UniProtKB/TrEMBL annotation:
SUPFAM superfamilies: Carbohydrate phosphatase
Protein name: 3'(2'),5'-bisphosphate nucleotidase CysQ
Amino acids binding Mg(2+): 83, 104, 106-107, 236
Keyword vocabulary terms for this entry: Magnesium, Metal-binding
Top-level taxon of the source organism: Bacteria
Keyword Flavoprotein included in the entry's annotation: no
GO biological process: 3'-phosphoadenosine 5'-phosphosulfate metabolic process; sulfate assimilation
Length: 300
């Protein structure tokens, strides 16, 4: 059994992160509303990188979460890995502790700017490079998904709770795929056509996609990164992985190997498959791999 760092009670910790998360939701909703006015957009965007935009919302949530954790939990032996801090700091993140918070203050920034509502905050507490606790906040849907290492549930701001709904025992062609809105590529599109899913849903933010699986709205997500191109990072997957696995789903690479965190560059490249059923997940991965090998559309 995994024990949290000395002096940390899991129930109190979840209570605190719950409070911090809804405070983050207020920030994200505030800036989302401002972005509806084109006159405000220039002030909110902090760079001109269309492929990797940063907004004031990213920075404000980043500042809030790190400040709150550090203030509430002084002298606890853990570190905080944040997407925004990695972007702005020249220092190499070199943690010597088993416990690391992994934060993405705004996953789905493009969708946030576009006003689709498909954006999320990810926060996971990793132990020995594996997600243990996880929080996926989806402000526009009034959802805070929480995983405590054993189970997953979703809370609304008023405290009402509902449980995961994972629609299991479906074969690959019966599944509903949830896929990227802003990060697709031709090879992934070709693979989706080859598999011929029952239905395809388009959605931004990995957190939103995984939440849609846990909520029973879809069954599978495939992330395909091209060799030598950009790929998702640890903060894109840590929190979503925690809520999916604790709910009974699975997320691995195509060879059914668990994701590895803390690698150089924090890359999560290659092909990653997330499904709603850990029992059938290996066979689903194998079937997808055979389709890729037969079609030759991706170098394995």
């Amino acid at each position: 059994m995994i024990e949290l760092p000395s002096g940390v009670d899991i129930n109190n910790l979840i209570d605190d992160i719950r409070i911090f998360s809804w405070q983050a939701a207020d920030i994200l909703l505030y800036y989302s509303k401002l972005l509806e006015n084109s006159d405000d957009k220039g002030n909110i965007l902090q760079n001109n990188n269309e492929d990797d935009p940063v907004t004031l919302a990213d920075l404000k949530v980043n500042e809030l979460i790190i400040k709150k954790i550090n203030e509430k939990y002084k002298n606890i032996n853990w570190d905080i890995l944040s997407e925004e801090n990695i972007k702005i700091s020249s220092k190499i993140f070199d943690s010597k502790t088993d416990w690391i918070w992994v934060l993405d203050p705004l996953d789905g920034t493009k969708d946030f700017i576009q006003g689709t509502g498909n954006y999320a905050m990810h926060l996971a507490l990793n132990f020995k490079q594996k997600p243990y606790l996880g929080f996926v906040l989806i402000p526009n849907k009034n959802q805070l998904w929480i995983a405590d290492g054993k189970k997953t549930w979703c809370e609304k701001r008023d405290g009402s709770i509902y449980e995961p709904i994972l629609l299991k025992n479906r074969n690959l062609h019966e599944m509903t795929l949830v896929t990227s809105k802003n990060h697709g590529n031709e090879i992934l599109k070709n693979l989706i056509q080859e598999i011929n899913f029952c239905k395809v849903k388009i959605m931004g933010s990995i957190g939103c996609k995984i939440a849609s699986i846990v909520h029973g709205e879809s069954d599978i997500y495939i992330c395909l990164s091209l060799p030598g191109k950009s790929a998702p990072k640890d903060w894109d997957f840590a929190a979503p992985e925690s809520i999916l696995k604790a709910a009974g789903g699975a997320i691995t690479n195509l060879d059914n190997q668990e994701l590895s965190y803390g690698k150089t560059g924090f890359q999560q490249g290659g092909i990653i498959v997330a499904t709603n059923d850990k029992k059938t997940h290996p066979s689903i991965c194998l079937e997808i791999k055979k389709i890729i090998q037969k079609s030759g559309i991706y170098p394995l």
